[in-house]
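Handout, page 2. Input:
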Amino acid sequence: MIFIFRIQIMNTESSVDKLLLALGFDTELSEDNWTKEHTYNGIGEHCFKKWVSNILPCELLNRSVKDAINSIVTLCECHTFYKNFPNPVYSPDYGNTWGRSANYIEINNRAIAEMEGNICKNGMLSSIKLLPAIPPSAKSWANCVILSQIFPNIYGDGLNKAPWEENSIYGTILGGGYSKNIICKEIEDKVSAEEQFKVFNDLAHFRGLKTGFRVVISEGQMKVSTGGDSNIPFNWDNYEHQELFIDECVKLMKTGFEAMFIDSAKHIGGFDCINYTGVGRLPNYGQMQYILNEIRARAGSFTISFVGEKSTGDFERYKNLGLTSGTAFIDPNDFYSVKHWAEKMKYSREYAPGVEVSNDNDPGGATYEERLNRLRNSLFANEFASDKLPSFMQMHDIFPLRYDTNTHHLMMCNPSYSTDGTKESHFENLFTKDDGREYNHKVGEIFAHALCH
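Output:
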């Protein structure tokens, strides 16, 4: 009887099946020849690690969701091809402290959303389409995809605007559901927003990736939606607002996310506020300890990784806060500096400072070779792969953006780069062309070697 029960569980409709049916596709999957033609592999005994490279993002973003899922299953590390997506799918197991050595790759899911006219939508579907091109995790460390936007933004959610008009991701509304930029609203009656997040997480986990999302904690950058009013200022002294923040994060963790990138985390508790550029108060130190512990406890997962922006220097302060790692401490251009800190921190398994290839405030301007050098240093500047420091990079570090924009601009504004009002044109013109393809090829070569490091 136990055996029969388990078979029944395994044959229940998967979240992926539910999405496919809602979008008008059937659920039978097939091997994808385009993916096979663009597959890169890890080297030697790690040749089973696969992803697509030497590509332009538009080649993925212009495909259907069904094509994307066929591609993901075609890249499976196992020797079995799944004609139906398996259920359940479990997150790759890298132990409780996996986040301490992970590579965090932030994808601006709003920037790659479908831009049609002045409407911005379906960023989650675009994120799914980009998954085949994210290099897989290695034996000793995980790659983790961080999504830039989850919650509605204050300045015009669901719309794109001119390149000079503010539409910042850093201003969010809690309690008002999820962003129209991200969720596929047309199918929400069949596949809820939380289920759409679960599809993304299941597909990422199938690829051997961890996942997470960015949050802001500056009081003046958050609103609370209640009783039809979405303009209530957030207040950390209001117990109900604190509980809302915790509960919103817990709901997301229960869909499969396992990491949270915390904007302005360095300044929690009023620390070094002379360099604070956020708007409004931050939680105090003990309050944030409570919040992070409650998120882990209520989500039922003590493997969640909390990453703090610029939360480095006073390592004990941030470790005791409950953070896993922090950014912007080590010179990413200096191989020997990175290796020195990897050696110095190798016995600290709960918290370590990280190496930035680039961040969300990146103004652009770095050459391709500079970015590639930082990527090499973040992956190889260690004696043993198990001692590797965490690293942080942006979508731009794998798929270069067009020359007249940068990571920070796309966080602050939401322009369409379409020349004819179509999403296909936006996808094509958001990124660089032939030199971007060559750069992506070089990134693929670096990861191919890193996976066997």
